[in-house]
Protein: Uracil-DNA glycosylase-like domain-containing protein
Organism: Paenibacillus physcomitrellae
Amino acid sequence: MDIYGQKGSTDSGGVPDHLDSGLQIVFVGFNPSLISGETGHHYANPRNNFWRILYQSGLTPRLYDPSEDGELLKLGYGFTNIVARPTKGIDDLTRKDYKEGREILKAKLLNYRPRVVCFVGKGVYKEYSRRNKVEWGFQPEPFLEGMHEFVAPSSSGLVRMPMKEIVGIYGRLTEAVSERDHI
């Protein structure tokens, strides 16, 4: 398997990237949780709201289970992380992890060129872009030319933002991808 973590790769510490050319959206997280590392599926912690957010925002036609993460390629959605190594939390990640992960992520995105890169959390985007000021939604000056970058709230159960507000932000992404010419 190559450095890009192609379909079925377990280069990312037991959680394969789900990437392909021509995707509508690639979701980028910080790194897999320990539960995701054990199961081999993205956003597998039962306290993580990712799959509920996708469904409630209209990005998916039904509520998917983490074990079905690879099935979302059929919807045009892919998954990867800025750091591949599963940890208990982001506090266990090092500057070196981010530096290496940033370069690998950039290479993946340039190789697969999705229409939209959705960063699941402001912190993920800040680590990737090295920018301090970040607003929710589409970024006015993408880090990588030719790709739309969307910053969405983290789906972690630890996030204090009301679920309705989180779903509303993801809903903006739903509207944009359903209006293909808009983005």
